[in-house]
Input
Amino acid sequence: MRTFGAVKGKIYLFIVLMVVLGPLGNVLLGKGMKHIGAATTWNPSGLLHFLLQLSRSTPVLLGVTCLMAFFVIYMLVLSWADYSYVQPASAMAYAMVALLAHFLLGEVVTPVRWAGVLIIGLGVLVVGHTPPRTTSEYN
Output
């Protein structure tokens, strides 16, 4: 029988993984797509060429892998905790987006945006002090 503390620890760990993997996957996809460029034609041979470029792009493949891992982890966390807990707690991904945009993409993140991230972080702290699950007991 699992204890409440073990389940809560697992929830926290997996939310951290969600916060990292989702934005990282999106940044990698964005970086890969900027390198590949836009699909310019919709005929079968043009689409096949575009798909072949996608399949050879390391950033795109890493991005898809991160997003697939994010999705599996997200489903697991939702099986352990309420949606009304998971979704606000995972909002820390906005901070990760700002960090990745600044350090990996070289974007300038303005002080106003950092202030917004700080406000989101404070909201996550409030949500984090509530029970992860209110609908049933842990098994």
About this structure: Residues 4-128 form one domain. The CA atoms of residues 18 and 70 lie 5 Å apart. The helical segments are 4-36, 44-55, 58-80, 83-89, 93-103, 111-128.
